[in-house]
Amino acid sequence: MARRALGPATLEVVRAVEAVATGPVLVACSGGPDSLALAAAAGIVAARSGLGVRAAVVDHGLQPGSDAVAAAVAHTLAGLGLEVVVLPVVVDRTGTGIEAAARGARYAALSAAAAPDELVLLGHTLDDQAETVLLGLARGSGTRSLAGMPTRRDGFVRPLLGVRAETTRAACTEMKAASTRPARLASRPSERARLVRASVSCAWAWLRAARAEASWAWAGR
Q: All domains of the chain, ordered by start, with CATH?
């Protein structure tokens, strides 16, 4: 049977998954277009190569009805032919920040759910990378901020750090995968919300140029 032709955005995401998926993977999915496109693309890779693919939805329990939202995301993923696990977590609200606490609880749950031979795939895109760098610079981290998020660390892999968010949205449209965008901005501190609303298109271009300049400067030492 001939392979179904993929749209250009879907093909870009699929190739990003193929570049890192050398074994079984567990795809973390929030229901937003980035992680949903990642999960759907991983499913396509699995169908082509026989790669083991599962999806995980973390229910942080921070909003009323979060369990129903997680169940809806799981239903969408199951409709894509993926095996899905929902991971309820308890987020410590007494620490230094709710977002950091939620991230820590989420990563711990994903790490525990992953089989020893599974990589955990995260849906961060080039836009998220630009945001991370901008936040670091705004907080005075200096040139250390240029490193951004690592592509791979401790069993977690971010295949889409070279892919724009507009591409993941287009991929969802091409694959007819209906995303449920997480309500993230409303809970973010005002500093982050202001930066998120800034033009990421300019930010990611600046990021690439700044990294290149830093590399040249280092090479010239």
A: 8-219 (3.40.50.620)
